[in-house]
Amino acid sequence: MFNKVRIFSWTLFDFARTAFSVIIITVIYSKYFSNYVTGGKVWLWGLAVSISMIITALLSPPLGAIADASRNRKRFLLVFTSVTVLCTALMFFVEKGDVLLGMMLFIIANIGYEGGAVFYDAFLPNITEKKNFGRVSGYGFAMGYVGALAVLLIVRMILPPSTSPDYIFYVRLSFVVAALFFLVFAVPIFLVVSEPSVPNKIKRDLIKTGIGKSAETLKAIFIEKKHPPVSRFLLSFFLYNDAIITIIAFASIFASKMLKMTDAQIIYFFIIVQSTAIFGAFIFGIIADHIGPKKTITITLIIWLAVIIGAYFDTTILEFYIVGLLAGLSIGSSQSCSRSLMALLTPKEREAEFFGFYDGLFGKSSAVLGPLVYGIVADISNQRFAVLAIGLFFLIGLIILQKVKVPKVDTSKQIAGTA
Fold first, then answer.
1. Which CATH architecture has domain 208-419?
2. Residues 267, 152: contact at Cβ < 8 Å?
3. What percentage of the chain's residues is helix, strand, coil (to nearest 5)?
4. Is the pTM of this model over 0.85?
């Protein structure tokens, strides 16, 4: 049954969890850790992001199997959420020179954040009918953008001028704010949304089954080459999604080091990015319905290349804001259209398996190489050259994408596939 209260409670979790994404990964902690805690060693932040995503990528297949068969999805979600909230709050105690502590807390928190998403997504079929999956999933994405805007505004209000003697204290306090924001707005899903129904028999070797199934899929796609369009697309997706995640992880570090932007200016920048992301997701969704996801992704990747070039050459904060407008237009649309294209390429009888592989193993592991490349290039030369290096990921991904053959379908089937 289409239950508005359950759906709203479910989307509130997306509203809640973006506090970690935007404050810790994107805006505040990434810059604080790289510039203050490590004394400017950008590669250590890249290493922390990569390690957390490698571990999450390895855990995703068995977690997916557990999400499919376990009667304790809510319990698993609670554990992963609690880990993220606790470690985020403990980041308050990370001070200058506490590199190992800062890295460990972030790695564990990010594993909880990414791993919990597996169980959160698994609730979708239980809160609405199949015909509403696309729309309700979209509500979750929209609530995530709204949550990002809300927590950014809250943090902006508590941060004093950067010249204040207590400024670093309030920066650290923002990590506690993010943890509390996540905790408070995550509560409804545990109180209102019921445990999804599953088959009576639950296999005891869930982890072994999950890993084995992923290995079989990997062999079929890349070794036996039974699905050439899928293999080409996954390789393309791996590259450009890696670039997108890297930009998100390093944008505030670039802004502070290269343009000397204050935390307040960076927060305003990401408010602009989040606002245009909502608009971009809506506009490109309409475009994708008319010209198809492959062509739409091509357009967004060209915009991303323009973002890379703009970031390399910009010298003023105003120019960087303009670059942010373009980036915002492309962020959500690139990822949503990628999911639509995967739906068109996936064999009907193996949708769950292929999508688990796409979102789990490839989606998570695609955040490994880019952060390391960016961090190393930035420390060897500077961050402008690091941005250009990430641009190569977009360019190669774009070239490979053009070799993907998309099956011809009529408009009605295409829309059904995207949903």
1. Up-down Bundle (1.20)
2. yes
3. 85, 0, 15
4. no
